[in-house]
Design goal:
mainly beta; 14-stranded antiparallel barrel
């Protein structure tokens, strides 16, 4: 009876999240595209199939329910992103008795000293006249998101989480800001670590430039994970997510994580159904396909340090490399 009650609560939360999701399918509809970039080496190596990952501070950028931990955790992630852009994230979580796990984090994407082409004057009557006319030979841009998150375990099986975040974009002398929220749930059945999860991310207002609004990338995902092998020194877990972004078709992500001797972890993942190109056989190739990586846990005094790496194949574009460093104590 208790298990049925927990499962019913999980289903109710998932239905509530689903009913808030829009179903527009126009690529490029949204702004703040940096929020679509995967954060964390572990999460990227698993093909972004991470809705059910738990006990990880970086989960505040995915499913805030997943940050729940009774330890203090600090994680830094660096991503050598496309066209030489810097993509970094920092997340920290703390446990408060009677409240749950709270956390704060920041994502930054930017590039400096971009050569400016200011030869073309604005056409009279256009929106560009509303902007200050910068005159520098170069310009900078950055995207920024600041998160505050909370996760609480309501039973030994059901965990809920929520985040609020400030989103800001700045290019040259123009800027725009928005407020958004993320909501998530994780339900562990207790059998072979079979876990279900759901998340709704980037529910909030528009970014406005020149009095025109661009919605932020609202996304709904459901996921599951299952322990194929669950021995102490040999754990193999499979992950799968179904993700529906507001501005594109449904996608499916899958990943495998093999933990050896509680110290070494190998990971692999793939994203199915992303937009891409078709080859001569009319087979669609996704822009972002396979990903691989691994991690190493290093005990240090009373803390555990983990170092993770992920490689992503981007097909026609440059491959990317991500590194994460996490301390738990």
């Amino acid at each position: 009876m208790q298990n049925k009650k927990y499962l019913t609560a999980f289903i109710i939360v998932v239905v509530m999240l689903t009913t808030t999701m829009g179903f527009a399918q126009k690529p490029g509809l949204t702004g703040a595209s940096f929020l679509k970039i995967a954060v964390g080496a572990r999460h990227t190596a698993l093909g972004s199939a991470v809705t059910t990952v738990a006990g990880d501070p970086t989960m505040m950028f995915w499913n805030p329910a997943g940050i729940y931990s009774e330890k203090t955790n600090i994680s830094f992630s660096h991503n050598d992103w496309l066209v030489a852009m810097t993509h970094d994230a920092l997340a920290a979580t703390f446990y408060l008795d009677g409240i749950g796990t709270i956390g704060a984090g920041i994502i930054y994407l930017g590039k400096s000293d971009i050569t400016a082409n200011r030869d073309i004057a604005p056409t009279p009557g256009t929106a560009s006249q509303q902007a200050d006319q910068a005159t520098g030979a170069t310009y900078d841009f950055y995207d920024l998101a600041v998160n505050l998150s909370i996760s609480r375990k309501f039973t030994d099986k059901l965990t809920l989480g929520a985040s609020i975040k400030l989103i800001r974009e700045k290019i040259d002398d123009l800027d725009a800001s928005a407020i958004a929220g993320d909501f998530g749930v994780i339900y562990n059945s207790g059998w072979r670590n079979l876990t279900f999860g759901a998340r709704l991310t980037n529910l909030g207002g528009d970014l406005e430039y020149f009095q025109f609004g661009a919605p932020i990338p609202l996304t709904f995902s459901i996921g599951a994970s299952f322990g194929i092998a669950n021995e102490k020194d040999n754990r193999l877990t499979a992950y799968i997510d179904a993700t529906k972004p507001q501005d594109n078709e449904q996608s499916y992500f899958g990943g495998l994580e093999w933990e050896i001797l509680e110290k070494l972890t190998l990971r692999g993942g793939y994203k199915f159904g992303l937009s891409g190109t078709e080859d001569s056989f009319n087979i669609e190739n996704t822009d972002e396909g396979a990903s691989f990586g691994g991690g190493l846990v290093i005990p240090w005094s009373s803390a555990d340090m983990s170092i993770d790496y992920a490689f992503t194949d981007f097909g026609l574009l440059d491959d990317t490399h991500r590194f994460s460093f996490t301390v738990s104590f």
